[in-house]
Amino acid sequence: MKKSTISIDKHFIVGDIDKRIYGSFIEHLGRAVYEGIYQPGSPFADEQGMRKDVIKLIRKLNVPIVRYPGGNFTSGYHWEDGVGPKNERPEKLDLAWSVIETNQFGLNEFMDWSKKANTSTMMAVNLGTRGVEDAKNIVEYCNVKGGSYYSELRKKHGYEQPHDIKLWCLGNEMDGPWQMGHKKASEYGRLAAESGRIMKMVDPSIELVACGSSFLDMDTFGTWEDTVLSECYDEADYLSLHQYYGNRDNNTAEFLANTVAMDRFISSVISICDAVKAKKRKSKSIQLSFDEWNVWYHSNEQDQKLERWCKVPHQLEDIYNFEDALLVGGMMITMLRHADRVKVACLAQLVNVIAPIMTSDTGAWMQTIFYPFALISNYGRGTVLNTIVETPVYESKHGGAPYLDSVCVMNEENETLTIFAVNKDLVDSMEITCDLRQFKDYRMKEHIVLTHSDLKAVNTEEHPENVAPIIIENERIEGGIMQMVLCEKSFHVIRLGK
Predict the structure, then answer these.
(1) What are residue 25's DSSP bridge partners?
(2) How many domains would you assign to the chain?
(3) Which residues contact 494 (CB under 8 A, 6 or more apart)?
(4) Domain match, 471 and 391 both
(5) Which helix (H) or strand (E) holds 329?
(6) Active site residues
(7) pTM check: above 0.90
(8) 393 in the same domain as 370
């Protein structure tokens, strides 16, 4: 049995957790909107066509913010097509995903849905095929109380009060050649700067996310971030990161080692942001918005066979297994370890499309990745402690990968300490020692474990709890020292409190 040590000091902190780090994402893609969150005529739908069973599961995730309407879809979207009387809304080609968009669900419906799901909105503006004028207009429509053309148009559409959206994305993946209207870094940087400046003239209270590179392996990575921020540093508040991982080679150890790559990715982007800050002699720090992240590879082959220009295809519908849940837990731990700079993050996506929630005409159910997200989202509120993990490592293509990923979250208001951990050893249990003498009055409240004998085990509508958390008791605290055993290939939530 391997042994690891977790060391913490309640005075050595990383930073306070911004609850928006537990955000998610809904794009007009596949069945995310239609048949996902919105399905008029379904026995599960309310009077507006919103799926009540899906809303119930989303509330369990405790998602504070949802990015909308994309994604690649954003770069060709005319938001005006999705507002006003539904019988006047045009059906249009969506070039991003080669389907027909009916526009029967749009901005105002999304805002209604957000309230029902107890979440807020992160709105993306089209800087691909559109630009400054349209960015200005949508902020006016959403956030101005009245007295102007677009604010009065909103009222005409039945929304007297402004939507008051506070967080906005300046386009999406603008260095990607797959993106409609993709641009050079200098072109996008100038457009982002001017769009952001005008948007903040309409509503100075909003915050803006500038596009970073589409993912770490882009040839543009690094120089893109530097050039873009050099142009729009004053207007931007956040810089985006996007990254997906897959296990196409069926090498679980390498797959789980992607947390090392993710940690390095975040650190690199922080360094670039701070280098631009130094060059421009600014006092403001750019924070990070990791607004697309997940496992994505299961559906790639299937998606290549889709018919073009259909409506609501089964697209990007990854069926997640147990090892995917382990990596999702590790990725969330990795972001929390950078909570001082990662302030927003969006699991991509929320329903049906590479998602923790799946639907059919007969119900909705939770995929394996639902559980680590829900557990960390609900119990990971407070302050991240500087968590020193001494653990054996194994070799991977990313270098030495720790067998144990872990982070500790202190919530002084609730007087709780929560330890999140993933044991990536596929064959052996791990004995953990943690010094809790600074938390001498704390006692074990709950130890939740997600594990399964089969790494490829999945949840289905017929067997929705094949992979699901259990509660165990195998830890002891003596003299302020906690010892516990983490079974092989497992995700853990250890909750302590007074």
Answers:
(1) 67
(2) 2
(3) 418, 419, 420, 421, 444, 446, 447, 448, 475, 484
(4) yes
(5) helix 322-336
(6) 173, 292
(7) yes
(8) no
**Taking a C-beta distance cutoff of 8 angstroms, is the pair 37, 357 a contact?**
no
CA 35 vs CA 45, 95, 364, 455: distances in Å: 10, 21, 11, 29
Same domain, 102 and 188: yes
Q: Is the pLDDT of residue 398 over 90?
A: yes
Distance of CA 467 to the CA centre of its chain: 22
pLDDT band at 475 (very low <50, low <70, confident <90, very high): confident
307 contacts 257 by C-beta, under 8 angstroms: no
pLDDT over threshold 90, residue 476: no
- The parent domain of residue 63 ranges over 18-379
Instruction: Indicate which CATH number applies to the domain containing 166.
Output: 3.20.20.80
Q: Kindly write down the DSSP assignment for every residue of 191-249, as one continuous string.
A: HHHHHHHHHHHH-TT-EEEE---SSTT-TTTTHHHHHHHHHHTTT-SEEEEEEEE--TT
**Within this chain, do residues 309 and 451 fall inside the same structural domain, yes or no?**
no
Are 308 and 433 in a shared domain? Answer: no
* Band of pLDDT at residue 201, cut at 50, 70 and 90: very high
- Quote the percentage of the chain above a pLDDT of 90: 97
Give the mean model confidence (pLDDT) for residues 8-14.
96
Q: How far apart, in Å, do the first and last CA atoms of the chain sit?
A: 31
Q: What angle do CA 289, 290, 291 make, to 5 degrees?
A: 90
At 419-463, the pLDDT tens digits run: 999 999 999 999 999 999 999 889 999 999 999 999 999 999 999
Asked which of 379, 394, 409 is the last residue of a domain, the reply is 379
In the block, tokens 């605290």 appear at 477
| Joined tokens for residue 61 | 């995730």
The whole-number average pLDDT for the span 377-391 is 98
- Contact indicator for 449, 432 with CB cutoff of 8 Å: no
Mean pLDDT of the chain: 97
